[in-house]
Specification:
The chain is mostly beta strands. The protein is built from no helices and 33 strands. It has a 15-stranded parallel β-sheet that branches. The protein is elongated, with a radius of gyration of 22 Å.
Length: 293
């Protein structure tokens, strides 16, 4: 246990190795900065100020952790223990090395959230989630107990599957943001809005309210879409002559359904509901080709 009456920092060539539990705390929000060579068995930190920690190996959070702002970089996988908690008043920024992955599924609360990994990222927040800054992952599973959204600085790229679960979901609807996924799955008891700045492959969607999903183009639905309110799926119009591939496609065997509202499928070029696919609505079902021409 290391408790400082002021800030905690290390010199450029310092090294710190703790084979077991490392517990770091400052006083008065002076901050904790350890960016030389550090290795811990498990890690706990507490500061009302900024915390910046770089670990040379894998990082395992334990116990109760707090920070005013957090920059946590791991040389391996970044994980938390079963009973760990992490509260960051401002931005929480996580990164691993070598695609080892980031898994934080304990009790977590962040002001805003940023993450970067070439591997899998799985994050659970016990309150509303706001993405900020540049975030990357090979695969992403992001779960929020509250609303899941982003601010205008957010630039999120997920190479493969991106799955979002929140009380409501609003991604890509801020001026200046950017969202790009390999495939997309959304689950919410409330409303869902997702705007993707590239082609969208919708692997599945469940919403307890309205759902609006928009791709720059094209948009392909490969999994069931079940919505309680109004559903709008849009493949935007771009200047792609003579290819004309701004299509909105529902693959065969897929169900697209609104149990309490309308369904609107629209595309800059073609709307293709393949054989074996089903589109059904409690209200009107509207299919529009050449949308935005």
């Amino acid at each position: 246990v290391l408790i400082s009456g002021g800030g905690i920092s290390d010199a450029a060539v310092a090294s710190l190795t703790v084979s077991g539990y490392a517990d770091l705390a400052d006083a008065g929000g002076a901050g904790i900065t350890l960016d030389a060579t550090a290795n811990f068995g498990t890690l706990t930190f507490n500061s009302t100020g900024a915390v910046s920690i770089t670990e040379a190996g894998a990082t395992a959070l334990a116990g109760v952790n707090t920070a005013g702002a957090l920059d946590l970089n791991s040389g391996g996988a970044l994980t938390d223990a079963a009973l760990a908690s992490l509260t960051v008043t401002g931005n929480a920024d996580f990164a691993d090395a070598g695609g080892a992955g980031i898994t934080l599924d304990g009790t977590n609360n962040f002001g805003t959230l940023t993450f970067n990994s070439t591997g899998a990222v799985a994050l659970t927040e016990s309150s509303a989630t706001v993405l900020a800054g540049v975030s990357t992952a090979d695969q992403l599973d992001l779960t929020s107990t509250g609303a899941l959204s982003n601010d205008g600085t957010s630039n999120l790229t997920v190479t493969n599957a991106a799955a979002f679960d929140g009380a409501s979901i609003a991604l890509g609807d801020q001026v200046g943001d950017s969202m790009n996924f390999g495939t997309l799955t959304v689950t919410s008891a409330g409303a869902v809005t997702v705007i993707e700045n590239s082609a969208m492959v919708l692997a599945g969607a469940t919403a307890g309210g309205d759902a609006t999903l928009t791709a720059t183009s094209p948009l392909t639905v490969t999994g069931d879409v079940l919505v309680a309110g109004d559903l709008v799926l849009t493949a935007g119009e771009i200047a792609d002559a003579p290819v004309f591939a701004d299509d909105r496609t529902v693959n065969g065997g897929v169900l697209v359904q609104s149990t309490g509202g309308s369904v609107t499928l629209q595309a800059g070029d073609d709307v293709d509901v393949q054989a074996g696919a089903t589109v059904t609505a409690a209200g009107a079902a509207t299919l529009t080709a050449g949308f935005g021409d």
